[in-house]
From TrEMBL:
FAD binds at Q163, K187, G188, A189, S226, H227. Its cofactor is FAD. This is proline dehydrogenase. One of its GO terms (molecular function) is proline dehydrogenase activity.
Length: 308
Protein backbone atom coordinates (compact mmCIF):
# COMPACT_ATOMS: atom_id res chain seq x y z
CA UNK A 1 0.00 0.00 0.00
CA UNK A 2 1.37 3.41 -0.96
CA UNK A 3 -0.47 5.35 1.74
CA UNK A 4 1.87 4.42 4.63
CA UNK A 5 4.91 5.14 2.45
CA UNK A 6 3.62 8.62 1.63
CA UNK A 7 2.77 9.28 5.26
CA UNK A 8 6.31 8.33 6.23
CA UNK A 9 7.59 10.73 3.55
CA UNK A 10 5.47 13.50 5.08
CA UNK A 11 7.80 13.42 8.09
CA UNK A 12 11.03 13.33 6.06
CA UNK A 13 13.02 16.56 5.79
CA UNK A 14 14.81 15.17 2.73
CA UNK A 15 11.52 14.44 0.95
CA UNK A 16 10.21 17.85 1.96
CA UNK A 17 13.16 19.48 0.21
CA UNK A 18 12.83 17.31 -2.90
CA UNK A 19 9.08 17.80 -3.29
CA UNK A 20 9.24 21.52 -2.51
CA UNK A 21 11.98 22.06 -5.11
CA UNK A 22 10.21 20.20 -7.93
CA UNK A 23 8.93 22.69 -10.55
CA UNK A 24 5.66 20.80 -10.91
CA UNK A 25 4.83 20.92 -7.21
CA UNK A 26 3.30 24.37 -6.88
CA UNK A 27 0.63 23.98 -9.59
CA UNK A 28 -0.44 20.69 -8.02
CA UNK A 29 -0.38 22.07 -4.47
CA UNK A 30 -2.57 24.94 -5.67
CA UNK A 31 -5.30 22.41 -6.37
CA UNK A 32 -5.57 21.69 -2.64
CA UNK A 33 -4.25 24.92 -1.08
CA UNK A 34 -5.55 27.96 -2.98
CA UNK A 35 -3.45 30.63 -1.28
CA UNK A 36 -0.62 31.45 1.08
CA UNK A 37 -1.93 34.65 2.68
CA UNK A 38 -5.18 36.04 4.05
CA UNK A 39 -5.30 38.49 1.15
CA UNK A 40 -5.21 35.58 -1.29
CA UNK A 41 -7.79 33.51 0.55
CA UNK A 42 -10.51 36.13 1.10
CA UNK A 43 -11.60 36.09 -2.58
CA UNK A 44 -11.82 32.28 -2.38
CA UNK A 45 -14.06 32.59 0.68
CA UNK A 46 -16.32 35.01 -1.16
CA UNK A 47 -16.43 32.80 -4.27
CA UNK A 48 -17.38 29.64 -2.38
CA UNK A 49 -19.98 31.25 -0.13
CA UNK A 50 -21.54 32.97 -3.15
CA UNK A 51 -22.06 29.45 -4.55
CA UNK A 52 -24.04 28.41 -1.47
CA UNK A 53 -21.16 26.55 0.15
CA UNK A 54 -19.85 26.87 3.69
CA UNK A 55 -16.22 26.71 4.77
CA UNK A 56 -13.93 25.61 7.53
CA UNK A 57 -10.60 27.40 7.30
CA UNK A 58 -7.24 25.83 8.18
CA UNK A 59 -4.00 27.79 8.44
CA UNK A 60 -1.55 25.01 7.56
CA UNK A 61 1.55 24.25 9.59
CA UNK A 62 2.46 21.61 12.15
CA UNK A 63 6.22 21.68 12.80
CA UNK A 64 6.12 23.89 15.88
CA UNK A 65 9.31 23.73 17.95
CA UNK A 66 9.13 26.89 20.09
CA UNK A 67 6.47 28.74 22.12
CA UNK A 68 7.01 31.74 19.87
CA UNK A 69 5.99 29.74 16.81
CA UNK A 70 2.87 28.56 18.64
CA UNK A 71 1.97 32.17 19.41
CA UNK A 72 2.52 33.08 15.76
CA UNK A 73 0.06 30.34 14.77
CA UNK A 74 -2.47 31.76 17.21
CA UNK A 75 -1.96 35.22 15.74
CA UNK A 76 -2.43 33.91 12.19
CA UNK A 77 -5.88 32.64 13.15
CA UNK A 78 -6.73 35.90 14.90
CA UNK A 79 -5.79 37.75 11.71
CA UNK A 80 -8.08 35.46 9.72
CA UNK A 81 -10.96 36.09 12.12
CA UNK A 82 -10.38 39.84 11.87
CA UNK A 83 -10.68 39.59 8.08
CA UNK A 84 -13.81 37.42 8.31
CA UNK A 85 -15.64 39.88 10.54
CA UNK A 86 -16.69 42.40 7.83
CA UNK A 87 -17.86 39.54 5.59
CA UNK A 88 -20.59 38.79 8.16
CA UNK A 89 -20.75 35.10 7.31
CA UNK A 90 -21.43 33.76 10.80
CA UNK A 91 -21.09 29.98 10.96
CA UNK A 92 -20.86 29.77 7.18
CA UNK A 93 -17.12 30.25 7.71
CA UNK A 94 -15.64 28.54 10.75
CA UNK A 95 -12.06 27.56 11.64
CA UNK A 96 -10.31 24.21 11.97
CA UNK A 97 -7.22 24.09 14.17
CA UNK A 98 -4.55 21.49 14.89
CA UNK A 99 -3.44 21.76 18.49
CA UNK A 100 0.10 20.80 17.44
CA UNK A 101 0.27 24.27 15.89
CA UNK A 102 -0.56 25.80 19.26
CA UNK A 103 2.31 24.07 21.06
CA UNK A 104 0.74 20.77 22.14
CA UNK A 105 3.96 18.78 21.56
CA UNK A 106 6.21 21.16 23.52
CA UNK A 107 7.08 20.96 27.22
CA UNK A 108 3.89 21.76 29.10
CA UNK A 109 2.17 21.44 25.75
CA UNK A 110 -1.35 20.66 26.96
CA UNK A 111 -1.58 23.85 28.99
CA UNK A 112 0.21 25.86 26.29
CA UNK A 113 -2.13 24.66 23.55
CA UNK A 114 -5.19 25.46 25.66
CA UNK A 115 -3.80 28.91 26.47
CA UNK A 116 -3.15 29.66 22.79
CA UNK A 117 -6.34 28.23 21.31
CA UNK A 118 -8.73 29.87 23.77
CA UNK A 119 -8.30 33.41 22.33
CA UNK A 120 -9.03 32.01 18.88
CA UNK A 121 -12.24 30.35 20.09
CA UNK A 122 -13.24 33.55 21.91
CA UNK A 123 -12.60 35.71 18.84
CA UNK A 124 -14.53 33.30 16.62
CA UNK A 125 -17.51 33.40 18.98
CA UNK A 126 -17.40 37.21 18.94
CA UNK A 127 -18.08 37.24 15.18
CA UNK A 128 -20.77 34.56 15.41
CA UNK A 129 -18.80 31.50 14.37
CA UNK A 130 -16.86 28.66 15.94
CA UNK A 131 -13.80 26.42 15.87
CA UNK A 132 -13.32 22.70 15.34
CA UNK A 133 -10.33 20.90 16.87
CA UNK A 134 -8.75 18.61 14.28
CA UNK A 135 -7.65 15.12 15.30
CA UNK A 136 -4.01 14.20 14.86
CA UNK A 137 -2.17 10.98 15.69
CA UNK A 138 -3.52 8.77 18.47
CA UNK A 139 -0.96 9.90 21.06
CA UNK A 140 -2.43 13.43 21.06
CA UNK A 141 -6.10 12.58 21.41
CA UNK A 142 -6.54 12.47 25.18
CA UNK A 143 -5.16 16.00 25.33
CA UNK A 144 -7.33 17.14 22.42
CA UNK A 145 -10.52 15.75 23.97
CA UNK A 146 -9.68 17.31 27.34
CA UNK A 147 -9.15 20.71 25.71
CA UNK A 148 -12.38 20.26 23.76
CA UNK A 149 -14.28 19.54 26.96
CA UNK A 150 -12.74 22.55 28.70
CA UNK A 151 -13.55 24.94 25.83
CA UNK A 152 -17.14 23.70 25.61
CA UNK A 153 -17.80 24.93 29.16
CA UNK A 154 -17.80 28.49 27.80
CA UNK A 155 -18.18 27.83 24.06
CA UNK A 156 -20.45 24.80 23.62
CA UNK A 157 -20.36 25.00 19.82
CA UNK A 158 -16.65 24.13 19.75
CA UNK A 159 -16.34 21.02 17.59
CA UNK A 160 -13.90 18.15 17.41
CA UNK A 161 -12.84 15.46 14.96
CA UNK A 162 -12.86 11.69 15.41
CA UNK A 163 -11.21 9.10 13.16
CA UNK A 164 -12.98 5.90 12.15
CA UNK A 165 -9.84 3.80 11.81
CA UNK A 166 -8.99 3.99 15.53
CA UNK A 167 -10.35 1.24 17.79
CA UNK A 168 -11.14 3.78 20.52
CA UNK A 169 -13.38 5.92 18.33
CA UNK A 170 -16.66 4.04 18.81
CA UNK A 171 -16.48 4.73 22.55
CA UNK A 172 -15.46 8.35 21.89
CA UNK A 173 -18.42 8.76 19.53
CA UNK A 174 -20.90 7.48 22.12
CA UNK A 175 -19.60 9.92 24.69
CA UNK A 176 -19.64 12.88 22.31
CA UNK A 177 -23.08 12.02 20.93
CA UNK A 178 -24.49 11.86 24.45
CA UNK A 179 -23.13 15.28 25.42
CA UNK A 180 -24.40 17.05 22.30
CA UNK A 181 -21.08 17.85 20.64
CA UNK A 182 -20.42 18.97 17.09
CA UNK A 183 -18.39 16.08 15.68
CA UNK A 184 -16.66 15.66 12.33
CA UNK A 185 -16.16 12.01 11.43
CA UNK A 186 -13.30 11.18 9.05
CA UNK A 187 -11.62 7.92 8.10
CA UNK A 188 -8.19 9.01 9.33
CA UNK A 189 -5.02 10.22 7.62
CA UNK A 190 -2.11 9.35 9.91
CA UNK A 191 0.04 6.23 9.93
CA UNK A 192 -1.17 4.32 12.99
CA UNK A 193 0.02 0.93 14.29
CA UNK A 194 -2.13 -2.18 14.10
CA UNK A 195 -2.37 -2.16 17.90
CA UNK A 196 -4.60 0.91 17.84
CA UNK A 197 -6.14 1.12 14.38
CA UNK A 198 -7.79 -0.88 11.61
CA UNK A 199 -5.44 -1.38 8.68
CA UNK A 200 -7.81 -2.64 5.97
CA UNK A 201 -10.09 -0.32 4.02
CA UNK A 202 -13.18 -2.50 4.40
CA UNK A 203 -12.72 -2.58 8.18
CA UNK A 204 -12.41 1.22 8.29
CA UNK A 205 -15.52 1.66 6.15
CA UNK A 206 -17.55 -0.63 8.41
CA UNK A 207 -16.36 1.24 11.49
CA UNK A 208 -17.23 4.55 9.81
CA UNK A 209 -20.84 3.44 9.29
CA UNK A 210 -21.19 2.14 12.84
CA UNK A 211 -19.83 5.38 14.28
CA UNK A 212 -21.92 7.55 12.00
CA UNK A 213 -25.06 5.70 13.09
CA UNK A 214 -24.16 6.49 16.71
CA UNK A 215 -23.71 10.17 15.89
CA UNK A 216 -26.93 10.41 13.89
CA UNK A 217 -28.93 8.77 16.68
CA UNK A 218 -27.32 10.94 19.37
CA UNK A 219 -27.89 14.45 20.67
CA UNK A 220 -25.06 16.19 18.83
CA UNK A 221 -24.42 17.62 15.38
CA UNK A 222 -22.74 15.16 12.97
CA UNK A 223 -20.36 16.42 10.30
CA UNK A 224 -19.68 13.79 7.62
CA UNK A 225 -16.10 14.19 6.44
CA UNK A 226 -15.90 11.97 3.37
CA UNK A 227 -15.67 12.05 -0.42
CA UNK A 228 -16.82 8.44 -0.73
CA UNK A 229 -20.11 8.34 -2.73
CA UNK A 230 -21.25 5.19 -0.97
CA UNK A 231 -20.69 6.63 2.50
CA UNK A 232 -22.45 9.85 1.49
CA UNK A 233 -25.50 7.85 0.42
CA UNK A 234 -25.41 5.84 3.65
CA UNK A 235 -25.16 9.07 5.64
CA UNK A 236 -28.27 10.44 3.95
CA UNK A 237 -30.18 7.26 4.74
CA UNK A 238 -29.02 7.24 8.36
CA UNK A 239 -30.09 10.87 8.72
CA UNK A 240 -33.56 10.06 7.35
CA UNK A 241 -33.89 7.05 9.64
CA UNK A 242 -32.88 9.17 12.63
CA UNK A 243 -35.42 11.83 11.68
CA UNK A 244 -32.85 14.55 11.16
CA UNK A 245 -33.68 17.64 9.14
CA UNK A 246 -31.25 18.93 6.51
CA UNK A 247 -29.89 21.59 8.86
CA UNK A 248 -29.20 19.08 11.64
CA UNK A 249 -26.07 17.61 10.06
CA UNK A 250 -23.66 18.55 7.31
CA UNK A 251 -21.23 17.19 4.76
CA UNK A 252 -17.60 18.27 4.64
CA UNK A 253 -15.12 17.76 1.82
CA UNK A 254 -11.68 19.07 0.97
CA UNK A 255 -11.10 22.02 -1.31
CA UNK A 256 -9.99 20.75 -4.70
CA UNK A 257 -11.61 17.33 -4.48
CA UNK A 258 -15.02 16.53 -6.06
CA UNK A 259 -16.01 20.16 -6.52
CA UNK A 260 -19.05 19.18 -8.59
CA UNK A 261 -20.27 17.06 -5.68
CA UNK A 262 -19.94 20.05 -3.36
CA UNK A 263 -22.30 22.01 -5.55
CA UNK A 264 -24.70 19.09 -6.07
CA UNK A 265 -25.19 18.51 -2.36
CA UNK A 266 -25.63 22.23 -1.70
CA UNK A 267 -28.20 22.46 -4.51
CA UNK A 268 -30.16 19.63 -2.86
CA UNK A 269 -30.41 21.71 0.31
CA UNK A 270 -27.67 20.03 2.31
CA UNK A 271 -25.20 22.00 4.37
CA UNK A 272 -21.97 21.45 2.45
CA UNK A 273 -18.78 22.75 4.09
CA UNK A 274 -15.48 22.93 2.20
CA UNK A 275 -12.31 22.36 4.22
CA UNK A 276 -10.08 25.11 2.83
CA UNK A 277 -6.42 25.31 3.84
CA UNK A 278 -3.98 28.11 3.17
CA UNK A 279 -0.50 29.16 4.22
CA UNK A 280 3.14 28.61 3.35
CA UNK A 281 3.87 25.51 5.47
CA UNK A 282 1.84 23.21 3.23
CA UNK A 283 4.04 20.11 2.96
CA UNK A 284 2.54 17.86 5.66
CA UNK A 285 -1.03 18.72 4.68
CA UNK A 286 -0.30 18.11 0.99
CA UNK A 287 1.35 14.73 1.57
CA UNK A 288 -1.59 13.48 3.63
CA UNK A 289 -3.96 14.45 0.82
CA UNK A 290 -1.87 12.27 -1.52
CA UNK A 291 -1.89 9.41 0.98
CA UNK A 292 -5.63 9.49 1.57
CA UNK A 293 -6.66 8.68 -1.96
CA UNK A 294 -4.80 6.96 -4.83
CA UNK A 295 -6.43 9.31 -7.34
CA UNK A 296 -4.65 12.24 -5.71
CA UNK A 297 -1.29 10.50 -6.09
CA UNK A 298 -2.03 9.63 -9.72
CA UNK A 299 -2.93 13.28 -10.35
CA UNK A 300 0.44 14.36 -8.92
CA UNK A 301 2.36 11.68 -10.85
CA UNK A 302 0.69 12.60 -14.16
CA UNK A 303 1.56 16.22 -13.56
CA UNK A 304 5.21 15.37 -12.94
CA UNK A 305 5.36 13.36 -16.14
CA UNK A 306 3.64 15.99 -18.28
CA UNK A 307 5.65 18.88 -16.84
CA UNK A 308 9.00 17.11 -16.46
Amino acid sequence: MLGPVILAASRSDRMRRLVSAAPVTKPVVDRFIPGETVDQIVPIIRELTDQGLELTMDVVGEDITTPEQAEAARDAYLELIDRLKPLDLGTRAEMSVKLSMFGQALDGGHELALKNVRPVVEAAAAIGTTVTLDAEDHTTLDSMFAIHEELRKDFPQTGCVIQAYLFRTEADARRLADNGSRVRLVKGAYKEPAEVAYQQRHEIDKAYVRILRTLMEGEGYPMIGSHDPRLISIAQELARTAGRKLDEYEFQMLYGIRGDEHLRLAAEGHRMRVYTAYGTDWYGYFMRRLAEKPANLRFFARSMVSKG
